[in-house]
Each structure stands twice: as C-alpha cells, then as structure tokens.
Amino acid sequence: MCLNSTMRILFTATVWWLTVGGSSPLVEGKNKEPLNNACNGTRVDQTAHVGESVSITCKYPQADKCSIRYFCRHAGNFTCTNIISAQHYNYTKLPRFSLTDDKQQGAYTVLIFTLTQEDAGKYQCALKTHNSITCLQDVFLHVL
C-alpha cells in the first residue's frame, strides 16, 4: 500500500525545463515543484513504421512504486508535455496511448497506437516522488 495516496491520473500537464547557471537543467512543474530531468545518459532508440504501434518500457526502482509515472514529449525550448501518467492504476488508456504498470517488476509500458510521422521525436520516462520529478530515460522515436 502506498502512503500519502491521492487517487489521480494526470493527462495533461506541461513541464517547464530551466537551465540554472550552467548546472544540470532543472524543471518546474505545474505547481512549481522542483524537478530533476537529467537522465544520466540513459537513452533508448525505438523505430517503428507509420500505422503500426510501438511499445516503450520504462524501468523504475522498487522503492518508487508509489510514485506517479509520467511519459512526456519534448516540445522544444526545454519543455516536455505530459502525454499520459498514472499513480494507482495498473492500466490507463487514452485514444492513442496506454500505460500499463507492473509494480512487481518495477516497470511501466507505454503503447502508442497508429503511429504517424508527427509522432517521431524525443520523449521521456519520469517519476514524480513527493514534490520532484526524476527522469528515468530519454526515448527517441523514429517513425519510418
């Protein structure tokens, strides 16, 4: 059981990336909580074809199984727009996206359905714990 649990799923939230004095980029979310977006070089490249679906797996530490899981898309100028997220539900579905969480394995999987060329780009897997968001990995999606 997770402590301090508020049942919620956040579907749209914009995360603002700020570079502070040459140090690692910091991020501020909707409620101005401090965020850490450095993925420590963790990068995944995915390739799929137009019209297909793609599966992206994001691993997280067991200690963070009560955290909110985020999947966002980089929109340029250091912004990352949340696509889909979940905290308590093992499965969340939107028209073209789904998120399935396996707390026992410490991983969540995002499916993107019916890919278009516009889906190509940089995404990020992240976790929100208390008042900070930590990047798990950068995902570069190539659509052929």
Describe this structure in words.
The protein has no helices and 12 strands. A hairpin with a 2-residue loop joins strand 11 and strand 12 (132-143). 0% of the residues lie in helices and 53% in strands. It is an all-beta fold and 144 residues long. The chain has an 8-stranded mixed β-sheet, with no helix packed on it. It has a 4-stranded antiparallel β-sheet with strand order 5-10-9-8, with no helix packed on it. It has strands at 14-18, 26-28, 34-36, 43-48, 54-59, 68-76, 79-86, 91-93, 97-102, 107-112, 121-129, 132-143. Its main location: membrane. It is found in: Cell membrane; Secreted. Residues 43-144 form the Immunoglobulin domain.
Produce the secondary structure layout.
Blueprint: E1 14-18, E2 26-28, E3 34-36, E4 43-48, E5 54-59, E6 68-76, E7 79-86, E8 91-93, E9 97-102, E10 107-112, E11 121-129, E12 132-143
Parallel strand pairs: 4-12
Antiparallel strand pairs: 1-2, 1-7, 2-3, 5-10, 6-7, 6-11, 8-9, 9-10, 11-12
